[in-house]
Write a structure and sequence with these properties.
Largest sheet: 6 strands, parallel
Helix content: 40-55%
Strand order of the largest sheet: 1-11-10-9-12-13
Order of helices and strands: EHHHHHEEEHEHEHEHEEHEHHEHEEHEHH
Radius of gyration: 25 Å
Length: 432
């Protein structure tokens, strides 16, 4: 199930190329469908959203059912356990505590001659969030998207989730939304949800930014509406890379690799180790553990598609390879993880030691699990409070201060051929 690859071989090069290609979110057929969906929702509004929802999710769905009612929220609370509410409360509090440390404040400074410069930092007014809730029930993704937005004090949060065939949203999703303070939830998913939030319909008011995970239809729809609204990032399939030495527990490593492979058949699960014997132990453990899991088919297919154990010379080479792959999650199962984590430049999240599994990061540790994928960790960051803030520059000059810089501004403007800029400076001093 887990292929073992020696580095610096043609097989290693071929597999790395396959991993890199996996991060390209393109599909001509899907893009054509997405563009048609966006166009129809933009022109037809609720009618088109309802039509796509009937086709893809709930056969008897009506546009009148688009917004979740107060009664539906109340019923959802009757269908979940108190233990579930306690768990999401614990997770929400941890996520909130972490993200409060990211908050920044506006600032102003007075320079020479009375010049005033500053940066105004304010929350976005209205944000839309897409959360998978049918093919995969991602309560955790709801938390990880909403809580940073509420910490940033976004004024309005609208959420879209696909309904089940009975035209209802899963009660766990509704309760989680309510516990996070979100009461504006719409029963639609896919590209039609992105279109509704970007352009607005009779029922859904347009938003300023759309965030959240989803399948390729959702990601390509987000890409298409970018510029009309802002988006967070293009989220590809899940990824994990484990760096392990001979001190690691092969059963722990196998379990953590499986935890990402079970998402979907296009998930990536990579082991990097200097020990061939350890890699073989992990391979055997994966085969044993996967047999008892309900998503065995997805796990097997993911390992066959994008699973591998790279055999490297030492941990330094393991880190270098990791920086090339730039994965979503990196786990360090090595004797002294604190000696190595600073060398990893390209990763969405780094988890240190045997008792920091990727699963704890997914649910309850605190940092958002909305992370860069498909090598985007080379330049991108996890979803954070900053994604829900906008910045405005503040500039104030006095006449003496402007007089000092006018010759330089005029010279630069004339070099660029922008005589109007130069004139706007000189006119203020003509009478002098």
């Amino acid at each position: 199930m887990l292929r073992i690859i020696e580095t610096h071989t043609p097989g290693a090069e071929a597999f790395l190329a396959k991993l890199k290609a996996r991060g390209k979110l393109t599909d001509a057929g899907i893009l054509k469908t997405v563009r048609r969906t966006l166009s129809e929702v933009q022109s037809e509004g609720d009618k088109a959203v309802a039509r796509y929802t009937r086709k893809l999710d709930a056969p008897r769905f009506s546009a009148k059912e688009l917004r979740v009612t107060r009664e539906e929220f109340g019923q959802a609370y009757l269908e979940v356990t108190s233990e579930f509410i306690e768990a999401i409360t614990h997770a929400r509090e941890n996520i909130e505590k972490f993200h409060r440390k990211q908050l920044r404040t506006s600032w102003m400074s007075t320079e020479a001659d009375g010049v005033l410069l500053g940066h105004l930092i304010r929350p976005l007014k209205r944000v839309g969030i897409c959360v998978p809730s049918v093919s995969q029930l991602l309560v955790s993704s709801l938390l990880m998207n909403v809580v940073p937005a509420t910490v940033a004090e976004v004024e309005e949060i609208a959420m879209c989730m696909g309904p089940q065939r009975n035209r209802k949203i899963n009660p766990h999703m509704l309760v989680t939304a309510a516990e996070c303070g979100v009461q504006e939830v719409y029963k639609c998913g896919g590209a039609q949800a992105v279109a509704a939030m970007a352009y607005g319909t009779e029922t859904v008011a347009p938003v300023d930014k759309i965030v959240g995970p989803g399948n390729l239809y959702v990601q390509l729809a987000k890409k298409e509406v970018y510029g009309h609204v802002d988006i967070d990032k293009l989220a590809g399939p899940s990824e994990i890379l484990v760096i392990a030495d001979s001190t690691a527990d092969p059963d722990y490593v196998a379990a953590d690799l499986i935890s990402q492979a079970e998402h979907k058949s296009d998930s990536s699960a990579i082991l990097v180790t200097p020990s061939l014997g350890f890699a073989e132990q992990v391979k055997a453990a994966i085969e044993i553990q996967a047999q008892s899991l309900p998503r065995q088919a997805e796990i097997v297919q993911a390992f066959e598609n994008y699973g591998a154990a790279f055999i490297v010379a030492d941990l330094a080479e393991a880190v270098a390879l990791t920086n090339v792959i730039a994965p979503e999650h990196v786990e360090l199962h090595v004797e002294n993880p604190l000696d190595w984590f600073g060398e990893i430049r390209n990763a969405g999240a780094i988890l240190l030691g045997a008792y920091s599994p990727e699963a704890v990061g997914d649910y309850i540790a605190g940092p958002s699990h909305i992370l860069p994928t498909g090598t985007a960790a080379r330049y991108a960051s996890p979803l954070s409070v900053d994604d829900f803030l906008k910045k405005t520059s503040l500039i104030s000059y006095t006449k003496p201060a402007l007089a000092k810089v006018t010759p330089d501004v005029v010279k630069l403007a004339e070099v660029e051929g922008l005589e109007g800029h130069a004139a706007a400076m000189k006119i203020r001093f003509e009478e002098d």
